[in-house]
# Entry
Amino acid sequence: MPATLTVDLTEEQEAYARSLVEAGAFPSVDAVLHHSLDKLRLDEERNRYHGMTQDELRTLLEERRKGPFISMEEFTRLTDEMLDEEMNARAVSD
# Structure
């Protein structure tokens, strides 16, 4: 369920976000912000593992092998939802 949040942007940030919408890259400023937060989260996750030693990575993998795991059906559902959200974020509204 989406949460409503008021965000203050600088004039430059707002102009940039609106320019992305006007260029057709995103259907709305909300979609620009959603995409930006998702990208920031992914970048942070990637950076968390960059620079880890081989032993640290091995320990991490061993911990993850223990689970928990999700079913293929749940994985497919989650993947489909993620792809739908991404496609909707990039859709151009008339």
Summary: DSSP finds four helices and no strands in the chain. The mean pLDDT is 88. Residues 83 and 89 are 10 Å apart (CA to CA).
